[in-house]
Amino acid sequence: MKKLLSLLLAALLFAACAFAEGDALPAFEYRGPDPIAEAVCAYLLENEGGYYTEGDVLIPCPSILEVDDTDPQDTLVWADYYLNWYVLRNTTLISVSGGAFPGMMHLRATDDGWEVTSVEYLRDGEDYDVDAKRVFGAREGLLEKFEADDDEALAIVERQYVSDYVNWNGLNVTQLQHFGWPPVPLINAPDTAEADQIIHCERSMGCALDYDLRVFSEFDYDDESISLAGVGDLEGISIDVYRYDESAEAILAELSEDMTEPVQTPATLGAEDVACTRLEDAALGEGVERPIYVVPLEGGCLAISTCNTFYYYEGDPVVPGGDAALEKVLSTFRLVP
Predict the structure, then answer these.
(1) What is the number of helices (H) and of strands (E) in the chain?
(2) How many other CB atoms sit within 10 Å of the CB of residue 243?
(3) What pTM did the predictor assign?
(4) Among candidates 263, 181, 268, which has minimal Cα distance to 216?
(5) What are the helix (H) ranges across the chain?
(6) Separation between Cα atoms, residue 44 and residue 58, nearest integer Å
């Protein structure tokens, strides 16, 4: 069964962590040898990218399955039409939104190459399978090829297009990453420097911390929060930092209401030993750690919650190595003006 039509990631809003490059990334421009792919990319850039949360650069990654150019005035192109917005963090392009539009495009030849005249995307829901059989089933073997074009196959195409973009523009970019997944090295790129694997994340809400892209990826709601999730073998663990306008005492009381046996103890965070209160539920199972550290600030407080189990669900197992990974990030916590 084919994956869902729209891989909507628009909720992944990346606030401004350290971005040393400073200069704007160049817009994607196809420079490969295939004029049909050039026309397809141009269409996707012009017509589809506006539906998603914008980043630093929009890169189309169409997985073209078959082309019928028997009629130059109605050339048919069957594909998974895929594109992503990326932000640049150090030397990593991180996908913040994007989507896939399986279907068929109609193109015609012009004096300048090719242009898309119309598109037939598969509809969502109950119409998806019907459309897939109609659009891709029109040619022998094409439906099977489409169904085999899974997430892994799309990832291969994406890596090629992103690598081409980086190489065409001579950019100092070494890898790409999707939320919840480890970074992927780009083709012909040098190894990512250790320093570039570390993101120094600072927020105007009054705090900062550092994390390793190979261990965590970031999911941000706004500048009043930081949300990190473990990647790879550490999938499921998390760190969430929120700013509240209420006092630390009020937030501790409110958070305690959701616990069976709330326990408060004085604690410190980070190398600067930031004073805080550690709130935990003593009724949790053996090895389960879901503490909340509440840091008082002028005019409010910060609440830093961590979880070492798989996605915070009741009864889910403790993630091996999760405690050490969480502690390493917490050790970098600091207050900033």
Answers:
(1) 6, 17
(2) 21
(3) 0.87
(4) 181
(5) 35-47, 127-135, 142-148, 151-169, 248-256, 322-330
(6) 10
Token pair belonging to 82: 């895929």
Tens-digit pLDDT profile for residues 67-122: 999 999 999 999 999 999 999 999 999 999 999 999 999 999 999 899 999 999 99
Token digits for 300?
A: 């409010």
List, in sequence order, the alpha helices (H) in 184-321.
248-256
Reported as type and span, the H/E element at residue 88 is strand 75-89
User: 170, 88 in Cβ contact below 8 A?
Assistant: no
Residue that is written with structure tokens 């059989």 in the block? 133
Cα gap 146→137, rounded to integer Å: 9
Tokens of 104: 């068929």
Beta 292-297 vs 300-307: how paired, if at all? antiparallel
- Rounded CA-CA distance 189/160 in Å is 12
pLDDT at residue 125, as a whole number: 87
